[in-house]
Amino acid sequence: MKMINNISRNIVSGIVAPLALTVGGFNTSAKAQAPGIVGIDHVGINVPNLEQGVQFFHDLFGFEQVTKLGPFAMDANWKKNFHIHDNAGAVTVVMMRAGDGSNIELFGYTPPVGSTVQPYRDDISATHISLYTTDIKATKAFLESKGIQFLTDINAGMFDTEGESWVYFETPWGASIELNSYPNGKGYEKQKPAVKLWNPATAAQLTTETYNKAFLQSFAVKQVAVWNETDSVARLPKLKEIYQNDIAFFDEEGSTNGIASLNARISKLQQQNARFKFSLIKIDNSNNMVRYYWNYGPASKPNLISGMDLIILEGGKIRTLNVFLDKLPPAAK
């Protein structure tokens, strides 16, 4: 009975924050001081060669060019207002989609008469961007294989940033960019703060993708099979079939990012609740948001526990999964 009493703490399908506050890791409760503000739309970067900049971000990171404007001539008032050199020529602007983060906007000036000397890090308005990766060692190794120079070794965070790894590399034009990763969250999250930092690894979009009943039923069967598979090695290819590589999973124990971490979480659940099995109650959806209702328990009482997974699909695979409990067993006397 001790195991039953501890189920609310041990099972992977735990209580999460109310949907009104968190969906896929997004905190929607913050109130903007300036009316209408939602968040950062894009970050602007000057590059000495626009084609080189676009190719760099596309070929190494998969960022996609979406819009291109220009070249535009700039009059004297424009140059004065935006602190641009008097002898600057035309400007061309490219906007790129940068994965599940802020867009980036590349500015190319012709001719490039601005300074090519990088500002000191402590200069006013000196900036850098950071790219989130689910596997910082693999990303660093890949970039090094492409000739990218790194400025530091991989560093480990501490205190509030415990669990985070970071490293800096240099672009072909001399700017520094950071890689960072915290697949199991940061130290400050242990305090369960009212507001959490935005995390691109947990970002997901509601779309107009539609899935018919046949797909949903097949999907549900695979989901049950994955969570009931006791062999972690055999489970891994099944996970990859229905989960995105950067799956963001949320339950009462916290957040988990990536298939490997989720695989470990399932193994932990099965070790804590031997001979328990999941079974499907029902599944439905609204576009790419899916509600998956389940039972969990031993053969003698298969509906001992029940709950619902709120899932967002991307390309037919799970991108985020938030777990809600509907029923727990009564505490033993």
Average pLDDT score? 85
Total DSSP E strands:
17
Instruction: Give the CATH level 1 class of the largest domain.
Output: Alpha Beta
Q: What is the C-alpha radius of gyration, as a whole number of Å?
A: 24 Å
What name is given to the CATH topology of the largest domain?
A: Nuclear Transport Factor 2, Chain: A
Helix content: 10-25%
Q: Specify the oligomeric state.
A: single chain
Strand content: 25-35%
Structural class comes to alpha+beta
- Give the helix tally: 8
- Please tell me the total number of domains: 3
CATH architecture of the largest domain: Roll
Protein name: Catechol 2,3-dioxygenase
InterPro entries: Glyas_Bleomycin-R_OHBP_Dase (IPR029068), MMCE/EMCE_epimerase (IPR051785), NTF2-like_dom_sf (IPR032710), VOC_core (IPR037523)
Organism: Filimonas lacunae
Keywords: Dioxygenase, Metal-binding, Oxidoreductase
Care to describe what's here?
This protein is of the alpha+beta class and 333 residues long. The protein has three domains: 43-116, Roll (2,3-Dihydroxybiphenyl 1,2-Dioxygenase, domain 1); 118-202, 2,3-Dihydroxybiphenyl 1,2-Dioxygenase, domain 1 (Roll); 204-327, Nuclear Transport Factor 2, Chain: A, CATH 3.10.450.50. It contains eight helices and 17 strands. The protein has helices at residues 2-5, 7-10, 50-61, 76-81, 136-145, 213-228, 232-242, 259-272; strands at residues 22-23, 26-27, 42-46, 64-72, 90-97, 103-110, 129-132, 149-150, 155-156, 165-170, 176-181, 243-251, 254-257, 277-286, 289-297, 305-314, 317-327. Strands 13-12-17-16-15-14 form a six-stranded mixed beta sheet. Strands 7, 8, 9, 10 and 11 form a five-stranded mixed beta sheet that branches. Helix 6 (213-228) runs antiparallel to helix 7 (232-242) and helix 7 (232-242) packs across helix 8. The N and C termini lie close together (9 Å). This is Catechol 2,3-dioxygenase. Pfam families: Glyoxalase_4. Residues 39-182 form the VOC domain. Keywords: Dioxygenase, Metal-binding, Oxidoreductase. GO terms for molecular function: dioxygenase activity; metal ion binding; methylmalonyl-CoA epimerase activity.
